[in-house]
Amino acid sequence: MSPALQTRALGKRYGRGWALRDCTLTIPAGAVVGLAGPNNAGKSTLLDLAVGLLAPTEGEISVLGRDPWRDAGALGSVGYVGQDAPLYRSFTVGEAVEFARATNVRWQPTAAHEFLARLSSDRRISTLSAGERARLALGLALGKRPSLLLLDEPFARLDPLAGREFLQMLMDGVAETDATVVIASHVTADIERVCDHIVLLTGGRVRLEGNVDRLLASHRLLTGASRPLGRISGVREIVRRRHSGRQMTLLARLDRPIVDASWSVDRIGLEDLLLAYMTPEQLPTPRAHEKGPLRWHG
To answer: What is the pLDDT of residue 147?
Structure first.
């Protein structure tokens, strides 16, 4: 099966600055992907390239095996909800649904019904709350039965309760459509519980990408006495290091288990892992209870 989204050396430049540069990644079909990174990391630019709103400056991008910029037909199987759930505010809910039906050949009203049932069809979109607009936008996106669903900061304007409801609706809808989902968010906690694949962007580049289970299994916190560092058997890469008095803590990417007894080895959770890759000062301090099983994020 072809990847749902694939890029090779993809870049987008605005004037003299690069919003995205040398971006190479593969998102497998059927995955729920957390597209993480701080503000201005390039997340929205990547999604805009994926739906053909922007043309690449360099490199290649394919969506469901097709070029979204040169082949508009590729977007018939893609659902997209941009930041703040952009909708025609002068439309009523009913008019928005009718517009979606008329412009999407894959439209299936039953796929959207559950999400729209609590919204009166004669209400103006301008009168809806942020949570209601998010519900409507998600319902319209799922109504076209997309093979790939892209969501750009869907929780940004939602309070915690509305965000939790939106996430539950999303996962229920995805279960029915079998769509690949990409959720872009700068707040790691928003996506931690549902994603099985991660793409982390920082400074317009891919910093980390892969299956969540495998990434967590390959990273460990090592704690030991401060010392000059040589090669540590089993460590492929030292991602971060921190000194605290006579103690040193390392975030290490491993290629095999650590057997050196001078290091205390602890697991790391997904949120702490991403923060450590984004910001060096966020390297967590291991605690005794962290040696137990990981808190699952699903």
So the answer is: 93
